[in-house]
Write a structure and sequence with these properties.
Layout lengths: L1 H7 L7 H25 L11 H6 L4 H22 L1 H12 L3 H20 L3 H26 L7 H20 L15 H27 L6 H18 L10 E2 L7 H20 L1 H11 L1 H6 L4 H27 L1 E2 L6 H14 L4 H17 L7 H15 L12 H5 L2 H9 L1
Antiparallel strand pairs: 1-2
């Protein structure tokens, strides 16, 4: 451990801006030289997911894939980040003097530039990035209920289905010439501009649907919420399967392509900001008090029932938004998507990343999504490896990898040389 710390100690002075600059240099190298590098390393094409798919499909190409990652990603990122540390620390010091919201937006814009350049190399990468960002929204929304609220809800795929179908019906009805709903009621050119309102509508439908679970379950104690929420999931799935007007088990298709990469990224950033504000607000602190000791919170004038129902509807709203984005990314949705497999996937992300932590939700969603996609060539064995990893995490880190950690934006974007000097003093 000490040797590892010594190895990475030269990089402790690199601020977030430096890592973003290093990442941008790496994706530019891949964009312009990726084909040439892969050709000389005897790779059939540019690896789409850091070479993991190639390594699993063709083990003989493992050295080539690792060499590609080293040349294209690891060396440029660390080298550029370290060499430009004085410059990026100066930039970070300048940004630190700006309003926090402005400095945050500048960092987000830089991160989006890196992400969009990396994803733009192939349509497959774009799809993986979009679905991963939707997973971040889902994980954050469930963490509000299962983490900050301390309950155990199994209804999130149901909320996601309500949001997906509500938003799909609205876009097909208003902006698409669909065989199911006929000619559009509004000019299709208005669709991209009104799409945020469509997603809010889908979230509102999911939030109202959550009352079916919240009203009866919060009158009880113990594990009744888990049972009622699981029943709600099956009710929603069965109801949609038997409603032929919405496509029944065949599902709905031809949703307009409104969920572009910048749209999904913006909603993910907005979700992180809103959830952070919610969990650090007075209501969020009351929610933590209810989780830790409900009778004590009630005796301290906290309206426990109202607090729990508000948090539950809040989490359901964002699950509905995620469902709407999901439906418009795939441009197809069917009730079979929102079953026990989806529930297991979301729960795995929440508990793998860590409870009561925005960092944990992001890490959990990113890790499970990328790992699941990377292990796709293993087919059945993928569902053996991922559960084994989760079991190990639950044994050694019962609350997840990064639990009970608040998001500190100011600490993320500050100059690292100043932080090191202050630590030394």
């Amino acid at each position: 451990m000490e040797k590892l710390k010594k190895l990475f100690s030269p990089f402790s002075v690199v601020p977030l801006a430096g890592w973003l600059l290093g990442g941008f240099s790496a994706v530019l190298m891949e964009y312009y030289l990726g084909d040439l590098i892969s050709y000389y390393l005897y790779l059939p094409k540019i690896p789409v997911l850091f070479g993991t798919l190639i390594m699993l499909k063709k083990p003989l190409l493992i050295p080539s894939a690792l060499a590609y990652d080293l040349i294209v990603y690891i060396v440029p990122i660390f080298l550029v980040a370290r060499l430009t540390a004085p410059l990026t620390n100066g930039l970070a010091a300048l940004l630190e003097r700006m309003p926090l919201w402005l400095a945050t937006l500048i960092h987000l814009a830089a991160f989006y530039g890196v992400l969009s350049t990396w994803a733009g190399i192939s349509d497959y990468r774009v799809l993986v990035v979009k679905l991963t960002m939707i997973s971040v929204i889902l994980t954050l929304s469930l963490n509000v209920i299962n983490g900050y609220q301390g309950e155990f809800s199994c209804s999130h795929p149901g909320f996601m289905a309500l949001g997906a179908y509500a938003s799909s019906i609205l876009t097909l009805l208003l902006f698409a010439n669909d065989k199911m709903f006929g000619a559009p009621l509004l000019n299709p050119a208005l669709g991209p501009y009104l799409f945020p309102l469509v997603l809010v509508f889908g979230g509102a439908v999911a939030a109202l649907g959550s009352l079916i679970v919240a009203i009866p379950s919060f009158r009880t104690r113990g594990d009744y919420l888990a049972i009622i929420s699981l029943a709600f999931l099956f009710i929603v799935k069965s109801a949609i399967e038997n409603l032929e007007i919405f496509g029944g088990p065949r599902g709905m298709s031809s949703q307009p392509n409104y969920a572009t990469l910048p749209v999904v990224f913006s909603w993910m950033a907005l979700c992180i900001w809103v959830v952070h504000n919610f969990t650090t607000s007075v209501l969020g602190k009351a929610l933590n008090a209810v989780r830790d000791n409900e009778p004590a919170a009630n005796s301290m004038t906290v309206n426990t029932r109202k607090t729990k129902m508000t948090a539950f509807m809040f989490g359901a709203f964002w699950a509905g938004v995620a469902g709407g984005l999901f439906a418009h990314v795939l441009r197809y949705v069917n009730p079979g998507t929102f079953g026990l497999n989806k529930l297991a996937e979301i729960l795995a992300m929440v508990y793998f990343g860590g409870l009561n932590s925005i960092y944990g939700s992001i890490v959990g969603a990113l890790s499970i999504s990328v790992l699941s996609e990377a292990l796709r060539p293993l087919e059945l064995f993928k569902w053996i490896i991922i559960p084994l990893i989760l079991i190990l995490v639950m044994i050694y880190r019962p609350h997840g990898l990064i639990s009970f950690t608040e998001l500190n934006v100011k600490g993320l974007i500050r100059p690292r040389n100043k932080a090191r000097q202050e630590g030394g003093e």
